[in-house]
Every structure is written in C-alpha cells, then in structure tokens.
Write a structure and sequence with these properties.
mainly alpha; 15 helices; globular; ABC transporter involved in vitamin B12 uptake, BtuC
Length: about 375
C-alpha cells in the first residue's frame, strides 16, 4: 500500500472517516422516518449555536480529553488500556475522600489536593493490570476490562455501606464542603462576558489543557517519552538500547491511570459536588475513540474530544426537541468509532490507491 503524505494521514483520513460516518448516520435517520437535515440543525444549534450550548459541549469534552490522553500514553508504549472507565471511577473515590476529609478554605487548595487524590487512586487502579502484564504476561486488555467491573462493584459497596450519610436513600456521598466548589466558566472574569448563564464547564477545562501540554512534553521532549515510544515501536530494539520493559510498562500505565483518574475532578468535584454511582459517565470508553481519532497526539485528542462533546450535547438536544430517540447519539458515536478505528485501514487503502494512481499519471 502506498504510504500516505503526512497531511493526508493526519487530516484527510479522519475527515473522510467522519464523512462516511455522517452519511451512514443520515441513512439511519431516514430509515426511522426523520429528517437528517433537521437532526443536524438541532445538534449544531444545541451544542455550538450558543454560549450555553458550548458550556455543555466543553464540559463533556473536558472529561474526554483526560481519558483520551490516558489511552494515548499507554498506546505509545504498545499498551491498549481500556480500563479508563474503572480508573476514572476510582479517581472519583479519591476526589470524594479528599474533599470530605477537611473543611477546605478555598477551591484552589482543594483542587490541588483533589487532583492529587484522583491521580493517585487512578494510577493505583492501573498498577495491578500493569504489573500483571509486565511480570506475568497477562494481556492488558483482558485485565483492564475485568478491573472496570471490579471498580464498579467497589464503588457501589463504598457508596452503600461506607460513605452514604445516615438517613440518605440514594447511593451517594454527602455534599462536598462549600470551599471545594469549582468556579464555572460564567464565574471567571472575562469569560463571564461570553458565558452569561450557569454552565457545567468549569476550571477543570484549563487543567485538561495543561495536562495535554504536559503529555506532549513528556512523550516528545523527555528521555522517558523516548523510552515509552521506543518500547511501543519494538521491544527487542528497546531491550538492545538498554530500556527496561517492565519499568516502562509500569510507568506508562501509572501515567495513563492517573490521567483517567483526573477526569473525575470535572464531574465529581466540578459538576456534582459529590460522588455518585456512575461518576465516570462512560467517558472511559469514549476516550478510546478520542485517542484513535486524534491519532494518539495531544492536539488531535483535544480536537476529537470537542467533536465527541458536540455529539454528546447535540444528542441530548435531539432527545429533547425532536422525536428522534436520544439513543441515536450512541449509534452516531459507534459509527464514528467504527470508521475512525476498525475501518481506518479501508480509508487508507483507497487513499493509497488514489495517490499511487495520481503519481503514476504524473510520471
């Protein structure tokens, strides 16, 4: 297969994959007797047509940035971490324990402490599958899947039997102290001129952007990043260069788990103000698609997270204002994942034929 130019691989392949997913989605909408144009208009208006819609889109995108970065770091070490869902839930537990521990005087202090708790718990949950992969040869995909279910069961136990206040019916912790409440975008000077209404997007967005820069810095500007990428390209070559696979596997998965855990400061601390049962909201699995579509690069992850934030908020608007079921959002997400992941090779193959034909014709 003809090797694609860099610009085609980075830009053209994802765009064509999105176009194909959009065409199939339109056919599905037609099949249920609805108008694809009206559906698209509703999604665009609801997700990016106003500052209020952007507030929700950015809120969802913030969570997806963290989980997308988590998959990205592991992927560069040739590790497919699909345990972001469980790691994010354990990160939420870390946030809850930190926020409930003290009467925090200010949100800035609480944010630093809660971020440390989220990262620590997420990394700890990723450490066991990492050890099993590095030392015992247990496949990381299998173990991280299993740990997602274990995490869900553990969170239910903690909420029902340990952290639920006496007399409360729903499985959730007590409300966090007022000093832990994170400012939303409409409360930040300057941004309040744009976001004039209460929106769930909060200062965690800036933490996510900082994390994106930090991941880029680590992977492409440090010795550790070189070792991670070298191991991911070829373990025999990495061994020949003196890189220790066990060490790098553990570090990459710890970083990945920490990033997934950090997602919880957005919704547990920033939006809910307490730990709920389904605190990860499916963001751990969406992070896989975000990383794939973003070509496992922090900038691509950011752009893909915005897209999936648009799909989440736009899908919710479909459920509110049209007779199209909200479950169609899941169908569209699945199609995007299908074409950007499983069928990515097909798009590359056809583009390779196109560029080869063009090159032959020019010659």
């Amino acid at each position: 297969m003809t090797k694609l130019p860099r610009w085609a691989d980075v830009v053209l392949v994802p765009l064509i994959s999105l176009l194909l997913a959009g065409i199939i989605s339109a056919l599905v909408i037609l099949a249920i007797g609805q108008s694809p144009w009206e559906a698209l208009k509703t999604m665009v208006d609801g997700a990016v047509g106003s500052a209020y819609g952007w507030g929700y889109t950015l809120y969802y995108a913030t969570s997806f940035i963290f989980t997308g970065l988590a998959v990205t770091v592991a992927f560069h070490a040739s590790l497919f971490n699909i345990g972001g869902e469980g790691q994010a839930q354990l990160g939420g537990l870390g946030v809850a324990l930190v926020c409930l521990a003290l009467p925090w005087p200010h949100w800035t202090v609480a944010l630093v402490a809660a971020s440390a708790g989220a990262a620590l718990f997420g990394a700890a949950w990723a450490a066991i599958p990492a050890y099993l992969q590095a030392k015992r040869g247990s496949h990381i995909v299998i173990t991280t899947i299993m740990f997602n279910y274990i995490a869900a069961a553990l969170i239910i136990y903690m909420l029902v039997s340990v952290l639920k206040p006496a007399g409360q019916m729903d499985p959730a912790t007590a409300r966090f102290p007022e000093g832990t409440r994170l400012p939303t975008l409409h409360e930040i000077p300057g941004l309040s001129l744009v976001f004039t209404k209460q929106v769930p997007a909060n200062v965690t967005l800036f933490v996510a952007l900082f994390a994106s820069w930090l991941v880029w810095l680590i992977l492409w500007r440090t010795r550790l990043g070189y070792e991670i990428r070298a191991l991911g390209k070829s373990e025999p070559a990495a061994l020949y260069a003196g890189i220790r696979p066990v060490r790098i596997t553990m570090i990459a998965m710890l970083l990945s788990g920490a990033l997934a855990g950090l997602m919880s400061i957005n919704n547990v601390m920033g939006e809910s103000g307490r730990l709920l049962q389904n605190s990860s909201e499916g963001a751990g699995f969406i992070g896989i698609a975000v990383a794939l579509m973003g070509r496992n690069h922090p900038l691509g992850v950011f752009l893909a997270a915005i897209l999936f934030g648009f799909l989440y908020q736009g899908g919710a608007e479909l459920g509110l204002w049209t007779s199209i079921p909200i479950e169609l959002r899941t169908v569209v997400q699945g199609l995007v994942i299908l074409f950007t992941g499983a069928l990515d090779h097909m798009v590359r193959m056809f583009l390779g034929l196109f560029f080869r034909t063009r090159k032959t014709g020019a010659a």
